[in-house]
Each structure stands twice: as C-alpha cells, then as structure tokens.
C-alpha cells in the first residue's frame, strides 16, 4: 500500500528535524544525505535546491525557517538569486568565516563548493559576538538550529556550535560541502587548450577526489591564520609580548554553576584591584581575563611572562617567543594548575568543580598561544590570469586579519569581510573591470581593522552585502585602480 500524503509530509518533517538537530559535523552530513535521498532531492542542482527542499518539507517548524531565509534571499543585491548564476566559487575551509561567505555566494546564485580538511568541529573555545552578528545569525534562523542561541543577554557562542549551524544553513541554500578534503595549491589552466579547456583548478588531498575536476572563477581562502593561498604578502604587527591562555572546564549545568557571573572582559586598567588581589593571593599576574559560560566554562586570559616563570609553567626564559612557548619548555601540569587557579579566583571560587573538558586530542582542554606578532594580509584580493582565464582570489576571516582572542574580534570582523567579499564577487560576475573591483575591495578593507561595535551602522535591519549599508562614511574610492595594478594579473608563480 502506498504512503498517504500526510505520511509523506510527516516523514519529510522528521528527516528534516534529524538534520536540524544533528550535533556533529559528520552527523549533519549524514542526515543531509539521508534527507536528500529519501526526498529524491539533488543537491548538485544548486540553483533549485533550496526551493525543492522548501516544497518537500512543509512542517510548521521548517516553515518558520523558510520564512526567515526567504526574507534574507529577497535582498535586492542578490537579484532574486540571479546575480552570479554563472560564477563558480571554491571556498577553502569550513570555519565560521568560510561558511558565512559560502552562504552569501549561494544567495547570489553562484555554484559554491566548500572544502574542509577535517571532518570534526571540536573547538570548545567561545567567540564573542557583536550585536550585528547576533542579528545576522538570528536572521538566518540560528535559534532553529540551536535553541539556546544568544538567549537573554548572552553574546557569545562556542566555535563548534557556530560552525555547525552555519554548515546546516550552507547545505540548505545549496552549497556543496566536502569534508576530509585538503587544499594543496592552485593549478593553472593547461597551456595547450587556451579557450575550450578547463580553467583554474585545485590540487587537493586525497588526489583523485571528484573535486579535483571542479574548475572555478573565484577562490576564497578561509583556511584560518595560516592561509595556504600564494601571492598575498602579510603585514606583521609586533606588540609587546602577549601570552594568551585558553581553558575549558566541564559545565554540568547545575543551579550553582548557572549562578556564577560571566566576566566579559576585565581589562587591567578598569579593574586594577582585581588583578592586584589575584597576584597577591596566587602569584598569578594577568592583564585581562574573560569568562563565558557555554557548553563549557570557557576562560581566555593574557598572562605576564614573569608570573608564568615564577609558577613553573614556563621552564626557561628565552628571548625568542617560539622557543619560550615550545612544548618542551612548558610544564603542562603547571599550566593546568595556573589556568584553574586563575579561573577559580576570577569566579570568586563559586564554580563547584573545575574539571577540564577534554579536547580533540583527548587531553585536558588548555592551550597557551603567543600574540606578540599578529598578522594581516596586505591585500584582501587579487586577480590571476593565465591563458585568458581570469581567477579572482580573495581572503576572509583569520586568513585576512588575525584577531586577538581576548578581544574576540575574529567572528565580527570576519563576517564583515565575508559580506564585502560577496559584494566583490557580485561585481566580478557583472563584468565590472577587475582593477575597479580590486580598488573598491582595498578601499573597504582599509576600514576593517578599525571597526568596533560602536562605529559601524546601528541599523542592522538594513545590512546587506552592500558595504554602504554597514560602514558609515564609506569612501569606496579611496584606493584608485592604478594603485592596485600589482595585484592584478599576478604572476602565477609568486
Ligand atoms: P577558522 O575558524 O580557523 O577555520 C579555518 C578552517 O579551515 C578550519 O576548519 C580548518 O580545518 C580549515 N583548513 C585549514 N587549512 C585547510 C586546507 N588546506 N584545506 C582545507 N581546509 C583547511 N578566537 C577567539 O575569539 N577566542 C578563542 O578562544 C579562540 N580560540 C581559537 C582556538 C583555535 C585552535 C583556533 C584555530 C582559533 C581560535 N580562535 C579564537 C579564532 C577563531 O576561531 C576565528 O577567529 C574564527 O573561527 C573565524 O575564523 P575563520 O573561519 O577565518 O578560520
């Protein structure tokens, strides 16, 4: 006996719900496959996928999400999903910024492929969200995927939860995502068939994966602070020695834990007594500390070198920071105690038990990083040309501008760059002159390091990929086309 219409509707609703509720990267990919198979949807049909899914899944819960995504898709900049229909984009990395960029490119109607070298989202660390990012994510249906998203005054989320929800949204809007696929380098179009042959491709690992045959017009480097895309010079900002420690403790969600207040950034200058008391009582000397309650109890703090030496965390004092913080020179047990003691004092000894959460490597989740040198790319984009095939190459997220974690600017500035990149790709697809597009992108990029929650436009409802909706007093022509000639037609072997 065949299924009734009602049974089909309820089965589709359930399959969709399994996908929405999946709690890991692998689980999400699996649930998505099952959903597509059972509902006979073809995810490679990227132009129609969202609409087919929407027609197939009509449960009331899904409808709530569709209305949010429809609202977003109605931004005039996307031209009803036709702004970039002939553009093929490769995004390297499924961190928050790669996925956020991929979603925008899909709204523009482009064919978007994301490759990610890992198949797990395991970072417990927590990102601070600016009000506009909360508004942005709500508009994409964040709460449907993660019911606790920014409830009340919460303005943060763990990196893995954020990746998980963005992965789901990306899949829904027709982005093709491949995990366990690592980008190695760009491959130039072959010399012997200048016009009809394939264009730019990527060398990837594992070799022979179908994505090695994908040729694209745009590539976006979203692979984190150690970007693999060639041709971008990096600027270094050398500050005074800054050593940051992150620590995650198990959150058992008890009432006692719920009562403990978060610390949203106690800088030394604002609360000298706190830090002096901490030093006097424990010998721990910090410049700042942040505590967010999320899936874990997450702490990030900047510690002074001398106190790390005094407490035996760093064994020998070396001038070169790399050597100073190398694993051979760090006493892991002492580091665990140091971070735990600071967390205990910072929360006024109110957290009942500070047991370390376990990280991806099966170890207690504590880490120490050097922020003495921070990197930013000199340019946000460039164009390569080979045998008449032009390729637009862009950076977003940490690959573009490395954030200082205790200030938590990574995701907020990362999303701004994701929108700016989508805007550039739109111009590219519309056939604007490459030098003009690059000059505009550089003009906008100059604003990025200065952005704060206070100095960007306050009317979040008006935000689109058009930069003028987000940056007040934008001068999109401050860099002139002749000033960007060095990033146009960049020699492939740079
Ligand atoms: P990422 O989130 O770094 O994502 C890059 C992605 O690219 C990763 O999934 C990676 O696996 C993938 N990738 C890398 N190379 C390749 C390749 N060759 N091919 C395919 N895929 C590739 N910020 C804070 O504010 N507070 C914190 O406590 C904090 N902790 C962090 C801890 C770690 C270990 C890391 C790496 C970053 C941390 N950050 C933190 C930074 C924060 O995660 C980023 O600012 C934010 O996630 C946005 O970054 P992104 O999307 O640009 O890159």
From TrEMBL:
Assigned GO CC terms: cytoplasm; nucleus
Catalytic activity, EC: 1.14.13.225
Major place of residence: cytoplasm
Keyword Membrane among UniProt keywords: yes
Cofactor: FAD
MF-aspect GO terms: actin binding; F-actin monooxygenase activity; FAD binding; metal ion binding
Subcellular location(s) per record: Cytoplasm; Nucleus
Family recorded in the similarity comment: Belongs to the Mical family.
Protein name, as recorded: F-actin monooxygenase
Organism: Denticeps clupeoides
Protein's gene: parvaa
